[in-house]
Amino acid sequence: MPPFATGEQWQLRHGGQRAVVVQLGGALRHYEVDGRQLLDGFTADARITGGRGQLLVPWPNRMGGGRYHFGGQDLQLPLTEPEKRNAIHGLLRWTPWQLLARSDHGVRVGTTLFPQPGYPFQLEVFADYRLGPEGLEVTVTATNAGDTAAPFGVGQHPYLTVGTGPVDTALLTVPASHRLCTDEQGLPTGREPVEGTTYDFRTARPIGDQQLDTAFAGLDRDGSGRAVVRLAHPSGRHGIDLWLGEGTRYVQVFTGDTLPEPERRRRGVAVEAMSCPADAFRSGRDLTTLEPGGSHVLRWGLGPWGTGG
Fold this sequence. Notes:
There is one protein chain. With 309 residues, the protein is mainly beta. It contains one helix and 27 strands. The radius of gyration is 18 Å and the shape is globular. 48% of the residues are buried. Helices cover 1% and strands 46% of the residues. It has one domain (9-201, 216-306): Beta-galactosidase, Chain A, domain 5 (Distorted Sandwich). The model has no long low-confidence stretch (mean pLDDT 96). The N and C termini lie far apart (38 Å).
């Protein structure tokens, strides 16, 4: 039997929950609860498209021109979104990750990001996936293993589904006071309050025909420090929550209208936990500088709620 397109498949189980993490990029391929699929993921023998479940290291989202200045150096990254002249979603999406620890409920995978053109820094990166009574918790840790400071950002890119087919009738809640305005390259030009605009999802409402590829800021957090994005079935009886914890300052919401495969468009809603906004290597906004030996932690998770069809 030929190897899977995404390498080894590491399955986690807890009660009625099942998740699958893959070797390629350490990505999250699948999450279901009691037989209900809650991610619009991919099969073991399929290519990953649209960033599904991928870890975005050492920057999430886009970087204009792939060119930035850091530590006295002018640096140029490959343009991985050539149609917009951007470098997009980091350098580890297509790298095989190693299995470091495993149990029935959890898995730890990791890799080394070695110095390379455009990013002459060295990071050790780990992703811990763990199922528990409340759902799936993901912790992404990066440590600067080099001898100079390194610029750093991180995100992850799962697509949520509540089984509606097109997402138009799904109910979306995004507890954020502001959204980032962008130019034709998808790069931030400023921010505006969501109040009184079509981007105000602080109260659950149907997505309708609105096209979202939007970063939100000013997250409203609960007593535990979490902000919760909710996608609900139109019945209001069940759905999935994606919570944003330690290290998450922004969340990108994407309805998939520009995906290259027409049949995958608007089938799920990508909800991307991010430590910084797009273009942070150039703007410096909320960019993390990792000193030698320093670490950054991004923590987020998924959980089902409700019952019924």
